[in-house]
Amino acid sequence: EDKVVQSPLSLVVHEGDTVTLNCSYEVTNFRSLLWYKQEKKAPTFLFMLTSSGIEKKSGRLSSILDKKELSSILNITATQTGDSAIYLCAAGPGNSGYALNFGKGTSLLVTP
Amino acid sequence: NAGVTQTPKFQVLKTGQSMTLQCAQDMNHNSMYWYRQDPGMGLRLIYYSASEGTTDKGEVPNGYNVSRLNKREFSLRLESAAPSQTSVYFCASSALTDTQYFGPGTRLTVL
Known about the structure:
The complex is a heterodimer.
Chain A: E1 3-7, E2 10-14, E3 19-26, E4 32-38, E5 44-50, E6 55-58, E7 61-66, E8 71-76, E9 85-92, E10 101-102, E11 106-111
Parallel strand pairs in A: 2-11
Antiparallel strand pairs in A: 1-3, 3-8, 4-5, 4-9, 6-7, 7-8, 9-10, 9-11
Chain B: E1 4-7, E2 10-13, E3 19-25, E4 31-38, E5 42-49, E6 56-57, E7 64-68, E8 74-78, E9 87-94, E10 100-102, E11 106-110
Parallel strand pairs in B: 2-11
Antiparallel strand pairs in B: 1-3, 3-8, 4-5, 4-9, 5-6, 7-8, 9-10, 9-11
């Protein structure tokens, strides 16, 4: 059975801290791992990592895919209160060949 | 370019009532998806449509039906709503890559 596990489930940090969110996956026919940010509404796309692109960076956010360990991390440096959100990890395509399997998310709260 | 749109935004139903959630995308994507999101459960796939004319069950399809009306539109129907279907419903679409783009969601309460 395909599964994606995220840790920790929740995290509280102070502004300026650096955080690392973890995601492990066991997915049939793995092709890609994606990170989304959700702020009380629809998830918005952050990164997609594949065998040909195992490291991505955008501003203070970066992500790495470890194909050997079947895992990924999302790093956020110099956190700001606007980073407070649920961060979702998804891997696919799994048995369907199309759909993504989502983890339960990590709830991040950045306090001033 | 509106992306993925969903209607309605909010809905309250009584047990046993039926309703259809509408989803449309203007990105010319082939694949479309319906998810539900419950507290502590993440996003769970209800149904998906890999391309126009095809639909398949996801992880939690019981109590739901779908219609891929055309390339743009993918609707989700609850024939006889139950309190266990109280949730936030998201529609998403994707092109040839795995990146899915989500609509704003429908918050459904079944009393």
